[in-house]
Write a structure and sequence with these properties.
Layout: H1 7-19, E1 23-25, H2 28-33, H3 37-49, E2 54-57, E3 60-62, H4 77-88, E4 92-94, H5 97-102, E5 113-117, E6 122-126, E7 129-135, E8 144-148, E9 154-158, H6 160-169, H7 171-174, H8 179-189, H9 195-205, H10 208-220, H11 225-232, E10 242-243, E11 253-255, E12 260-262
Parallel strand pairs: 5-7, 10-12
Antiparallel strand pairs: 1-3, 2-3, 4-5, 6-7, 8-9, 11-12
Helix pairs in contact: 6-9, 9-10, 9-11, 10-11
């Protein structure tokens, strides 16, 4: 069924399709179609309510490359995130449940995107896409894997090694311990990651607690002591203990080398 469009709506889509752009901004349409501010606002609001365009934020909208045949248009989740980040001039990488699912560690399909980025924090909803934005410093972005969707959108994920470190570092946000230890063991056993690369990524992107936990885990897996010493040298001296699994009761053997209470159930 063809979509019924008024004169202004038809002019709008003729203009945006001529431009071949994915987004339009307030002010742009008023100038192109000879509208005043109120007319433009009403036009954009009307199109958004009908589901023919999607609001990214106030004054910025995603537009379809062609009109959806007889229904509402929904941009892909990666297009939604990329447009938001481009608007803020930021860099992002997907991690957490999105990376865990991508690399085959978790069968559950996430219902939102989890994006480390260097601009904004909080929750966003763009069309049907829910996004959790986690602002980090520039030096905590990196170690990524990039692919391009069939629609041409570039998508940036944390690499396999980085996602494993993220699973230990950000365990409380992602609910990923103790599962992450099993993922690390399995990836090393399959040679999908090497202890050397895992240590390299941990040294650059982990905090002290993560270094302690990863160091102890790799020691338990029989990793060469020469590699482990690289991790140990980066850990400041402390007499305080942290549990290997923060969600389990704090009972178990004490490991003074790593400052870890080994309370993991295997």
């Amino acid at each position: 069924m063809a979509i019924a469009l008024g004169n202004l709506e038809a002019q709008f889509f003729a203009y945006v399709q001529m431009r071949g752009a994915e987004t339009v901004r307030s002010g742009e349409i008023a100038q192109a179609l000879g509208l005043d501010v109120q007319q433009e606002r009403k036009l954009l609001s009307r199109l958004a309510r009908r589901g023919l365009i999607v609001r990214v934020r106030r004054g910025l909208y995603l537009v379809p490359p062609r009109l959806p045949p007889g229904g509402r248009w929904s941009p892909g989740e990666f297009m939604a995130l990329s447009s938001l980040m481009a608007d803020y001039g930021g860099t992002y990488q997907l991690s957490g449940p999105n990376a865990f699912h991508r690399y085959g560690w978790d069968n559950q399909v996430p219902n939102r995107l989890y994006a480390y980025n260097n601009r904004i924090s909080g929750e966003r909803k763009i069309g049907p896409t829910l996004i959790t934005l986690i602002k980090v410093t520039n030096d905590r972005l990196g170690e990524t894997d990039v692919f391009t969707t069939p629609e041409g959108t570039e998508v940036i994920y944390s690499s396999r090694e980085r996602a494993l470190i993220d699973a230990v570092y950000d365990w409380s946000r992602f609910g990923s311990l103790p599962r992450a230890y099993g993922w690390i063991r399995a990836e090393i056993a399959k040679k999908s990651v090497s202890p050397k690369d895992l240590i390299r990524v941990a040294q650059r992107y982990a905090n002290t607690g993560t270094l302690r936990r990863v160091g102890k885990l790799l020691e338990m897996e029989g990793v060469e002591n020469a590699f482990l010493r690289k991790v140990q040298r980066q850990i400041p001296p402390s007499t305080a203990l942290i549990p290997l699994v923060p969600t389990l009761p704090k009972r178990g053997a004490v490991d003074r080398r790593w400052g870890v209470l080994v309370n993991e159930r295997r």
